[in-house]
Amino acid sequence: ETGVTQSPTHLIKTRGQQVTLRCSSQSGHNTVSWYQQALGQGPQFIFQYYREEENGRGNFPPRFSGLQFPNYSSELNVNALELDDSALYLCASSFARGGVTDTQYFGPGTRLTVL
Amino acid sequence: AQKVTQAQTEISVVEKEDVTLDCVYETRDTTYYLFWYKQPPSGELVFLIRRNSFDEQNEISGRYSWNFQKSTSSFNFTITASQVVDSAVYFCALKGINDGGTSYGKLTFGQGTILTVHP
What we know:
The complex is a heterodimer. Chain A is mainly beta. Chain A contains no helices and 13 strands. Chain A starts with a strand and ends with a strand. By secondary structure, chain B is mainly β. Chain B has strands at about 5, 10-15, 20, 25, 30-40, 45-50, 60, 65-70, 75-80, 90-95, 110, 115-119. The interface between A and B is medium-sized, with 30 and 27 residues.
């Protein structure tokens, strides 16, 4: 069974640029959630994708957007990068049925540095 | 609003000592799930356990045990006979189920407890 994978591992961007992070869900899972983890903090929920639609969003501005593809993989896009966007971005996949999401399993994360 | 508090920022123990990590939560949902995750230096969050709000049975898995007390809104995690490999950041997390009986994937995490086990 393949676990959750994310790419790239590390990324360095400059303020104002745009970035795309990618996530492949675990086999058998149909839902992907994205989290931002600043240094020394707990992960903060960005949003979840289910059936290729955003299904719940945390307190993040619209410049954070995403996609889910028919194979359940997902992308996180961040426009107009700010210094505070520097963080570890974690993707988690899970199985959802009847509106209830099961346990989330996390990928290794993408470390984004904004200069 | 949901909230998870892990009051212990850092804990340092010597190998073979027992250690308990505290977790206190707040939620208005009557049905919810509690989780513990381990984050080693590599960064990946590793799932350890999930408990349902209607199941207050304590659980033991090898050297790990969890004490869920609804009356005090606590879900504490004990490692018995700690080992150096247990060194990591541990997160407690909460997910509620709304009145409609659905729960999208938002996990609310605590700030984490850094556990260092010295040889």
